[in-house]
Amino acid sequence: MVLDHKKDYPARWSALMSLAAKIGCAGLTLHEWVKKAEVHSGMRAGVPSDVVDRIKALDRENREERQANEILRKACAYFAMAELDRRAR
Fold this sequence. Notes:
By secondary structure, the protein is mainly α.
């Protein structure tokens, strides 16, 4: 909507503010929505939000896997030491 009516206003910000008032949201909020729409459509450089969400999920999964591996490594070392102590007696 902003992109369609941009030519009717002297500046992009004035188009944003006018349309934001008409739909009942803050101008900055509408500006962020327009930027995201431009990224998704390829009009603006950037990474689409669905890709960012997927990267965050994969990073979270990797962190959880590393923590689980560390717990297993420590448990393995603990039981190995316990077995060595048992054999030494």
